[in-house]
Amino acid sequence: MEEEAAGSFPLLTQEGYMFRTALLSAACLLAIGACTQPESTETAGSEGAASTPATVTVSSDSTALPLPIPINSVMVSLVDFAADGIWRPAGQDEPMTDKQWLMAEKDAADLVASATLITTAGTGVNDAEWVKEADWLRWSTEMQQVALEAQSAVQAKDKERLRLVGDRLVEVCQTCHQKYKPGLPSMGITRFPVYPKYQEQ
Fold first, then answer.
1. 56 membership: H or E segment, kind and range
2. Tell me: the pLDDT tens digits for 42-77?
3. Contact 2, 84 (CB under 8 A)
4. What angle (nearest 5°) sits at the alpha carbon of residue 105, between those of residues 99 and 108?
């Protein structure tokens, strides 16, 4: 997780919210793809039909779609956004607004799903090695557990509890980064440049 300057929690604009939601939706489809994949990827053609664009080949015995992007892209596009949305609002002095609680609920759900996704090797040069390591699986599991605790705190609207959860989340992220990604930004991939500078409209 890449830290930003301390301050009040900024809200995404509608466009930013839709962009991030689209990213998470695509990621979740990767994880549940096996439930909707046909037994054969071969489709019948018809004369005059438009050509089908190239797609990822999935064998009939696959349990899920492969991840065709680096894990690092998932971390920056999904995990970083979601983690920031948990620890930042809880650490501010002012009470959280209804919109901030709603966003924190969304961010916690994003983080729960992302923790599962990053245990799947993508196209990154180190991905296959990372997902086999016990530390990677342990910290991914811890991240998901912390996200579930954040969900519970949000449901209770317990800001102090969410702050403590956020502190634990930062510890997990930093510990993992110390081993796997000590240099920031990771692989030259930075957060969407205008986030978190969105202001509430």
1. none
2. 333 333 444 444 455 555 566 778 899 999 989 888
3. no
4. 140
Single-letter amino acid, residue 52 = T
Residue in the block written with tokens 């969900």: 151
For 149, the 3-state DSSP assignment is helix
Average model confidence (pLDDT) for the chain? 74
Q: Residue 54: helix, strand or coil by DSSP? A: coil
Cβ(86)–Cβ(162) below 8 Å: yes
Q: Are 31 and 116 in contact (CB under 8 A)?
A: yes
Determine the Cα–Cα distance for residues 67 and 31; give it in Å rounded to an integer. 9
Q: How far apart are CA 176 and CA 169, in angstroms?
A: 11
Question: Residue 169: which H helix or E strand, with range?
Answer: helix 159-180
Buried-state track 127-136, b at ≥16 Cβ within 10 A, e below 16: beebbeeeeb
Q: How far apart are CA 185 and CA 157, in angstroms?
A: 33
Cβ atoms of residues 90 and 162 within 8 Å: yes
The helix, strand and coil proportions of the chain, stated in percent and rounded to the nearest 5, come to 55, 0, 45
pTM over 0.85: no
